[in-house]
């Protein structure tokens, strides 16, 4: 079984600033904050971002976490509807192709809180593809999120989980680093818009400009070439299924 953990923002979708807009709204509503501070968001967790934003206002996120999150999650669907967000190129086709392969299981590895991740995936109508995940509700360090995603996959797939066939797909150097922390291979994709990040310096196993080339992704991660060796691929699948039984 090949297990693939996808980052959300900058990898599968661009939400056009919907998350920050919702955060800004709730900060204003709860604390009268007119303008929230500027903080780095790429490759970080919701918990880390919010701790920093709260600190800038001399507030404790821990103290207000549950009320803040409830308000954030109820605002997010509306800001997603208002912002110019989009599914990134090729994502729908890639997820559909991977779903058709019974040797592939897909999960989420995101800095978003779990509920925010679900809302975003539902908004872009790709929630059905993912069976497990790691989220940024309580972790500040993305490596902890990666560990959560990996154990969620292990738990969900049980004996079918093969650690040597674990992949992370992400758009920042943090995604690459957290993949290495769980001994995962990495596909990096340059659709994120992280500032001054050179993904190639962080040495992902595979680097794509976008996820638009489904065949190239399948070949690199699943080990299949779609055009020339369909027969080999289906034979391998059958052999694999025999082993599984
Ligand atoms: Mg990202």
* Hetero compounds: magnesium ion
Provide the number of structural domains.
2
| End-to-end separation | 13 Å
Strand content of the residues, in percent?
5-15%
Helices, by number, come to: 9
User: Structural class of the secondary structure composition?
Assistant: alpha/beta
The CATH homologous superfamily of the largest domain is termed HAD superfamily/HAD-like
Helix content: 40-55%
Strand order of the largest sheet: 5-4-1-6-7-8
The number of strands is 8
| Assigned CATH class of the largest domain | Alpha Beta
Order of helices and strands: EEHHHEHEHEHEHEEHH
Rg from C-alpha positions? 19 Å
CATH architecture of the largest domain: 3-Layer(aba) Sandwich
Average of pLDDT = 91
Task: Explain what this protein looks like in three dimensions.
With about 240 residues, the chain is an alpha/beta fold. The chain has helices at about 20-30, 45-55, 60-80, 90-100, 115-125, 140-155, 175-180, 215-220, 230-245; strands spanning about 1-5, 15, 85, 105-110, 130-135, 165-170, 185-190, 205-210. The strands form two sheets. The chain has a six-stranded parallel β-sheet with strand order 5-4-1-6-7-8, with helices on both faces. The chain is globular. Helix 1 (about 20-30) crosses helix 3, helix 3 packs parallel to helix 5 (about 115-125) and helix 6 (about 140-155) crosses helix 7. The protein binds magnesium ion. Magnesium ion binds near residues 7, 9, 10 and 11. Magnesium ion (MG) binds near residues 11 and 172.
């Amino acid at each position: 079984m090949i297990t693939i953990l996808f980052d959300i923002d900058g990898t599968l979708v661009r939400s056009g600033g919907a998350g920050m807009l919702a955060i800004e709204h709730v900060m204003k509503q709860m604390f009268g904050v007119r303008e929230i501070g500027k903080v780095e968001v790429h490759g970080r967790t919701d918990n880390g971002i919010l701790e920093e934003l709260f600190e800038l206002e001399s507030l404790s996120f821990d103290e207000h976490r549950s009320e803040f999150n409830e308000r954030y999650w109820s605002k997010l669907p509306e800001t997603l509807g208002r912002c110019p967000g989009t599914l990134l190129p090729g994502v729908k086709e890639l997820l559909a192709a991977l779903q058709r392969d019974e040797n592939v299981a897909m999960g989420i590895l995101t800095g978003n809180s779990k509920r925010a991740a679900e809302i975003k995936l539902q908004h872009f109508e790709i929630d059905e593809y993912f069976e497990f995940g790691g989220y940024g509700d309580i972790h500040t360090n993305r490596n902890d999120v990666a560990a959560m995603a990996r154990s969620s996959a292990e738990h969900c797939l049980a004996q079918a989980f093969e650690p040597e066939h674990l992949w992370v797909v992400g758009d920042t150097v943090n995604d690459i680093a957290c993949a290495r922390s769980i001994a995962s291979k990495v596909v990096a994709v340059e659709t994120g818009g992280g500032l001054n990040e050179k993904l190639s310096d962080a040495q992902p196993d595979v680097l794509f400009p976008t996820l638009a080339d489904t065949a190239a992704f399948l070949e690199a991660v699943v080990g299949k070439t779609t055009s020339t060796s369909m027969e080999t691929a289906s034979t391998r699948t059958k052999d694999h299924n025999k082993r599984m039984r």
